[in-house]
Design goal:
The complex is a heterodimer of chains A (about 230) and B (about 675). Chain A has seven helices and 13 strands. Chain A has about 230 residues and is an alpha+beta fold. The two termini of chain B are about 30 Å apart. The chains are: A alpha+beta (about 230), B alpha+beta (about 675).
C-alpha cells in the first residue's frame, strides 16, 4: 500500500463518516450614486477545511467525483474569462486559497444591469442549473436599488431528491449579501435585512437551506436619500 | 394465481423436522440446498407469540383478506412447524429446477389455502397435483409433504441447433431464404423427435393441428415449416383467431411489394418464434412433471449421502445453506456468460456453506468454504502465524470504537501466492499460457527474497481506533463593522477526530531506517524524541510514527505516541477483544456503544440527525467478524452481532426491529 493509498483509507475510515460542513457564500455589491460599482463574490469553506482537505484526497465521495485543485482553478479561470468578455464588466480578479479553501471573484461594473444573470450564466457554463433568478436595478433618478429574487421551484424538487446524507452537506451553510452605497439608506423592504449604523450598507444573512426550501426570499428594495 | 403465490410464500417463511425428515427426498445431485429449521425457530418464539407479533398479525390478516378466509394462527396453513423446510435446485445444461419441500401437518388445511373455483387439483391415490396457470410450475402433495417445482429452460442450450433439434425446437432468427438449407436438415431430425418424444409424452396443453393450406402458403414465401411438426404445436387459445389473418397476409405476399413482404415475413417470424417458445415451455413442463413424479415415487440416492453436505450440518442452526462447489457454480454459469473459462476456473474451491444462528445474546452467521487439499495446505502455511502479543498492550477496550487485525506469514504467503494464483486462474489464461505462468512464478521468487521481505514485514498488523479526541482547529471567517465593512478574522473551533493507531511487526528495521533517513534528509519527515512526524502538507491531520520493540507504529495522536515511547500506555483490554485478536488470523470489531454521544451534534449535521444517529448506535451491540482456524480442508469465518440487553433472544429482537421500522 502506497502512502497515498494509506491516507485515502484513513480518511475514508476516520473522517468522512461525519460529513457535514459549514461554508459561507458572500455577495458584496457596492453601488455608487452614478450606478457604477464593484462586486466581490466569496465562497469560504475554511470552517470545514479538515474535511475538505480529506475529501480532496479522494477520487469520489458519496458517488460524486471530487474535483482536483487544478480542476477548481481551471473552472475559476473560465469564470474569470467569461466575465472579462461580458459587457460593462472590467477589472476582473480572482483568488483561490487552497490552504483555507477560500475563493473570491471581484469585478467592476459600469451599470447595475450588467450584473444581471451573471451568476446564472457562470453556473450554466459549468453545467449547473441555477437555483434562482435574480435581477438587479438601480434608478439614478429615484435613487432606488432593488433586487428581484425568485427561487426556481424545480430547485427544491431537485434538492429533495438528494439523499439525506447529501443534503446534510448544506446544513450550517450560510448566504450573506451586503449592498453598499454612497448615500445613506432610508429604507430597506426586506424584513430580514439590516441597515448599518452608518446607514450606508444593508446586510442580509440567511441559511442556504432556507433559500433552497424557499423559506426565505432575498428580494429587497432599498431607497437611498435624495 | 395470487392465492397460490401467497401459499407458497408462506411456506418460504416457515417451515419445520425429525421423524421422516424431507432431506431424504433431496436428490444427491442437488446443487444448492437451503434449510429453515422449524423446530429451532419456534424454540425461540412460540407459535402463539408469533401469531401475536406484529409480523405475525400482518401476515395473518393479509392472508385472510386476500383469500377471503379467517386465519388466526400460522398453524391454519397446514404446515408442520416442527420440521425442516427445504429449498434445493438442480442444474443441467438444458434446464434448471427450483424446488421447495415443505412438511405438511394437515393437508386439508393446506388445500383450503389453494382452493378456488377455477383451479382444481387432480388426485391419484393420496397424491394431489396442481399445475399453476401458464404451466410454469407444478405443486404435488400428500398428507406429509408438499413439493413445488418450477423449471427454467436454458436458452444457451437451445441456441445450439443440433441439441434443440433433438426436441423438435428450432432457433428462429429473422432472416430469409438462406434458412431453407438448415431448415430442411432440421426437419429430418424433427420428425424423429416427433415420434420419439412428443407423442410419447403428450403435452398437457390444448393441441391443434394446422390447415394444410397454411403450410403451402409458407412454402411459397420461402419460410418452411413441416406439417409433421405442426400437428403437435401448442398455442394459447387466443392465438387461434389470429391465424387466418396471418394466413391472409401470407397469401398476399406474392403480389405485394417488397416492403410489405418484409412486414409479412416479420409477422411470420414472430409467429414461428412464439411457436418455438411454446414448444420450449411445454418441454420444460414435461420435464418438470417427470421430475416431480420422481421425487414422489422414485427411488434415488439422497443428498444425505453427500459427505460435504452431511458435514456442513449443525443442529443448533436456525437456517443453513449449502452450495455444492464454487467450481461447479462457475461451470454452470459459464456457458451463459461465454465459452471461455469452462476448463475449470475456480479450481480448488469446493463446497460453500453458511449457517445462521440466533441465541439469547447474538445473531451469528458462519460461513465455510471447502478447499482442495493442495489449496488447503497452502492456506495452512500462510495462516501459520499469530498476532504479535505485544499489540494487545495498545488496545483500550473501554474507549475503542473498533479494530481490525490480520496475521499471515509473509514468507509463506509470498511463496504460496503464485501457486494459488495459478490454480485459480491458470485455466482462464489457457493451457498455452501454462509455461508463461510457470516462468512468471519463478521470476517472482527470483526477484523477491521471501525470507528477507518477511523480516521487514512479518505479516501481522492491527488497526485500532482508541476513541475520539477533540482538537482545536483554526478557521477564517469574517466580521463586519458598523459600516458592514468586512474584516477577515481567525477563529477556533473544536473538531472531533478518531485517534487511530496502526501497528505491524518488523524484525529487520534496516530498510525502514534507511527510508526514514532519506525522509528526514528530504524534509518529508521530522523527528523529536524518536517520534517521527510525516510532513505532508496536503494531509489535514498530523501523522506520527515510531519503532519500538519490533513494532512499527503509526498514529495521529502525539500523546499516544509519547505514551508508547515512554511505556506509559494505558491499556485495558477486555476478554472478548483479547480472544478475538489473539486467537484468530483475521478479526474485525465495531463497538457502537463507545461512540454514543461522543460526536458533537454539529459534526453530524444538527441535533435531529445526531439524535437518530445516537439512538441507532445505542441499539447496536458489538459487531464482529473473525476467521476460524482451518479445519481439515475447510476455511471458515463468523460474523456476529450482539443484541442489546433487555431482549429475550435474537429472533424476538429482530421482530421488534421490524415492528419499529414499520411504525
Amino acid at each position: 500500500m502506497r502512502l497515498n493509498q494509506f491516507y485515502k483509507f484513513l480518511f475514508l475510515v476516520i473522517l468522512i463518516p461525519f460529513l457535514s460542513s459549514c461554508f459561507e457564500v458572500i455577495e458584496e455589491i457596492s453601488v455608487k450614486n452614478d450606478g457604477t460599482g464593484d462586486v466581490v463574490l466569496t465562497i469560504n469553506l475554511s470552517q470545514s477545511k479538515t474535511k475538505v482537505a480529506s475529501v480532496m484526497l479522494l477520487d469520489s465521495i458519496q458517488g460524486y467525483k471530487v474535483p482536483s485543485k487544478q480542476k477548481i482553478q481551471q473552472e475559476l479561470n473560465e469564470a474569470v474569462a467569461y466575465l472579462r468578455k461580458s459587457e460593462g464588466i472590467t477589472n476582473v480578479k480572482s483568488t483561490a486559497d487552497f490552504n483555507n479553501f477560500i475563493a473570491t471573484i471581484s469585478f467592476t461594473f459600469k451599470d447595475v444591469s450588467n450584473i444581471n444573470n451573471i451568476t446564472k450564466n457562470i453556473l450554466a457554463q459549468q453545467k449547473i442549473k441555477a437555483t434562482n433568478t435574480s435581477s438587479y436595478t438601480y434608478n439614478k433618478v429615484t435613487k432606488t436599488f432593488s433586487r428581484k429574487y425568485q427561487a426556481i421551484s424545480t430547485a427544491k424538487t431537485e434538492f429533495n431528491k438528494l439523499k439525506a446524507k447529501d443534503k446534510a452537506v448544506f446544513n450550517g451553510a450560510t448566504y450573506t449579501s451586503i449592498y453598499r452605497f454612497e448615500s445613506p439608506v432610508t429604507s430597506s423592504t426586506n424584513p430580514a435585512s439590516n441597515i448599518s449604523k452608518s446607514k450606508k450598507a444593508v446586510m442580509l444573512k440567511s441559511s442556504i437551506m432556507d433559500l433552497i426550501n424557499g423559506k426565505i426570499n432575498v428580494s429587497n428594495t432599498i431607497q437611498l436619500s435624495k | 394465481m395470487k392465492k397460490i403465490l401467497i401459499a407458497i410464500s408462506l411456506f418460504l417463511l416457515f417451515n419445520f423436522a425429525q421423524a421422516q425428515d424431507l432431506v431424504k427426498k433431496i436428490p444427491s445431485n442437488a446443487f444448492t440446498v437451503a434449510t429453515i429449521k422449524g423446530d429451532n425457530v419456534f424454540k425461540l418464539m412460540f407459535v402463539k407469540d408469533f401469531n401475536e407479533s406484529f409480523v405475525g398479525k400482518k401476515l395473518l390478516t393479509g392472508t385472510s383478506k386476500s383469500l377471503d378466509k379467517n386465519f388466526t394462527s400460522i398453524e391454519d396453513f397446514g404446515i408442520n412447524l416442527e420440521k425442516n423446510m427445504y429449498y434445493f435446485n438442480q442444474l443441467s445444461d438444458s434446464i434448471t429446477y427450483n424446488c421447495f419441500l415443505i412438511p405438511i401437518k394437515d393437508a386439508k388445511k393446506f388445500e383450503t389455502l389453494i382452493d378456488n373455483k377455477e383451479k382444481k387439483f387432480t388426485q391419484q391415490g393420496d397424491i394431489r397435483t396442481m399445475v399453476l396457470p401458464d404451466s410454469t410450475s407444478v405443486i404435488k402433495w400428500n398428507n406429509n409433504m408438499l413439493y413445488f417445482v418450477t423449471g427454467s429452460i436454458s436458452s444457451s442450450f437451445f441456441a445450439d441447433p443440433a441439441k434443440s433439434a433433438r426436441y423438435g425446437i428450432k432457433d428462429i432468427r429473422f432472416q430469409n431464404d438462406e434458412a431453407i438449407a438448415t431448415d430442411s436438415a432440421a426437419v429430418a431430425v424433427d420428425s424423429v423427435a416427433t415420434t420419439d418424444y412428443w407423442q410419447e409424452i403428450p403435452p398437457p396443453v390444448i393441441t391443434k393441428s394446422h390447415k394444410k393450406t397454411k403450410t403451402t402458403a409458407k412454402k411459397a414465401t420461402g419460410k418452411k415449416k413441416k406439417s409433421t411438426k405442426k400437428k403437435t404445436v401448442v398455442r394459447p387459445k387466443q392465438e387461434v383467431e389470429e391465424e387466418p389473418i396471418a394466413d391472409a397476409a401470407m397469401d398476399a405476399t406474392e403480389a405485394a411489394p417488397a416492403a410489405e413482404r418484409v412486414n409479412a415475413d416479420y409477422d411470420l417470424y414472430q409467429q414461428e418464434r412464439a411457436e418455438q417458445e411454446a414448444k420450449k415451455k411445454r418441454l420444460a413442463f414435461t420435464w418438470m412433471s417427470a421430475q416431480a413424479e420422481q421425487i414422489f415415487n422414485g427411488t434415488y440416492e439422497s443428498i444425505e449421502s453427500n459427505k460435504s453436505y452431511a458435514s456442513s450440518l449443525d443442529n443448533t442452526a436456525i437456517a443453513e445453506l449449502w452450495v455444492s462447489s464454487l467450481q461447479d457454480v462457475y461451470n454452470a454459469v459459464a456457458p451463459a456468460i461465454g465459452t471461455y473459462g469452462k476448463a475449470g476456473m475456480m479450481k480448488g474451491y469446493g463446497s460453500l456453506n453458511a449457517k445462521l444462528y440466533m441465541d439469547k445474546k447474538s445473531f451469528r452467521i458462519s460461513t465455510g468454504l471447502e478447499l482442495a487439499q493442495e489449496q488447503a495446505d497452502s492456506y495452512k502455511k500462510i495462516m501459520n502465524r499469530k498476532l504479535n502479543k505485544n499489540f494487545l498492550k495498545y488496545v483500550n477496550s473501554e474507549k475503542a470504537l473498533g479494530f481490525m487485525s490480520y496475521s499471515i506469514d509473509t514468507k509463506a504467503y509470498l511463496e504460496e501466492f503464485p501457486k494459488i494464483l495459478k490454480q485459480t486462474y491458470g485455466s482462464f489464461l489457457g493451457a498455452k499460457m501454462e509455461e508463461e505462468i510457470d516462468l512468471g512464478t519463478d521470476l517472482f521468487s527470483l526477484l523477491l527474497d521471501e525470507e528477507a521481505v518477511s523480516k521487514v514485514i512479518k505479516g501481522d498488523a492491527l488497526f485500532v481506533i482508541n476513541g475520539l479526541k477533540t482538537k482545536e482547529v483554526t478557521y477564517t471567517t469574517y466580521e463586519y463593522d458598523d459600516d458592514y465593512k468586512q474584516k477577515e478574522v481567525t477563529k477556533t473551533k473544536n473538531e472531533t477526530l478518531p485517534d487511530f493507531l496502526f501497528m505491524f511487526s518488523s524484525e529487520d528495521h534496516r530498510l525502514i531506517n534507511k527510508l526514514i533517513k532519506y525522509g528526514v534528509n528530504k524534509n518529508y519527515v521530522s523527528v523529536e524524541n524518536n517520534i517521527y512526524k510525516i510532513l505532508e502538507k496536503k494531509s489535514p491531520i498530523d501523522i506520527y510514527f515510531l519503532i519500538k520493540d519490533g513494532i512499527v507504529f503509526f498514529g495521529n495522536s502525539l500523546s499516544e505516541m509519547q505514551g508508547i515511547s515512554n511505556n506509559q500506555y494505558n491499556n485495558k483490554i477486555s476478554k472478548l477483544h483479547k480472544n478475538l485478536l489473539s486467537k484468530n488470523n483475521f478479526s474485525f470489531l465495531f463497538n457502537a456503544k463507545n461512540l454514543v454521544g461522543k460526536v458533537p451534534d454539529s459534526e453530524i449535521g444538527g441535533e435531529e440527525t445526531a439524535k437518530k444517529f445516537n439512538s441507532t448506535l445505542e441499539k447496536m451491540g458489538n459487531v464482529y467478524m473473525k476467521s476460524n482456524p482451518i479445519k481439515g480442508r475447510l476455511v471458515s469465518a463468523d460474523i456476529s452481532a450482539e443484541i442489546p440487553n433487555g431482549h429475550e433472544n435474537a429472533l424476538k429482537y429482530l421482530f421488534s426491529l421490524i415492528e419499529n421500522a414499520a411504525k
